[in-house]
Write a structure and sequence with these properties.
Blueprint: H1 2-36, E1 40-47, E2 59-66, E3 69-74, E4 84-87, E5 92-97, H2 101-104, E6 112-118, E7 121-127, H3 129-140
Antiparallel strand pairs: 1-2, 1-7, 2-3, 3-4, 5-6, 6-7
């Protein structure tokens, strides 16, 4: 009986390890597909409350430029659909800052935080210098006559 029970525990452990490995591989393949398609950058995002309450939690993700929208996907997830969609038309970049000490622990190193308003949606994006330059270039590349405010206050 004890031998049978030990085999069952070993089998369960092997299945758990296999499932964790499959989850890790599927997330790695998903990330590879996002970045391989081009127009993708690493950036963290958090949603700001409309009522002025406490901001949401920073989430590590991948921003992907698709025409006039920036699609944001969580790094640790399985959804193919983006969690947030930020439209270039009518976009307002209202603030730029360095992350505070308490924020820096949960973000990639050497990032700048920008506050972005897209209609009713207000989010903060934390990006490295190269990703921020690409974001601003994407904003400035809007078709003529588009109401975009790409200037960042210093």
């Amino acid at each position: 009986m004890a031998e049978h029970l030990a085999w069952d525990a070993g089998g369960v452990l092997a299945v758990v390890i296999l499932v964790v490995l499959l989850l890790f591989v599927s997330m790695a393949v998903r990330r590879l597909l996002f970045t391989r398609a081009g127009g993708a950058v690493e950036c963290s995002l958090r949603v700001l409350s409309r009522e002025g309450g406490a901001p949401g939690v920073w989430r590590l993700g991948i921003g992907r430029y698709k025409g006039d929208v920036l699609q944001w996907h969580r790094v640790f997830g399985f959804r193919r659909r983006p969690r947030q969609v930020i439209h270039r038309r009518g976009l307002v970049v209202s603030n730029r800052r360095r992350p505070g000490p308490e924020e820096a622990e949960g973000l990639l190193p050497d990032v700048s935080v920008i506050e972005v308003r897209d209609g009713d949606l207000t989010v903060e994006l934390a990006m490295g210098a190269a990703a921020l330059t690409g974001f601003l270039a994407w904003l400035e590349a809007a078709p003529p006559g588009s109401p975009v405010e790409p200037h960042l206050p210093e």
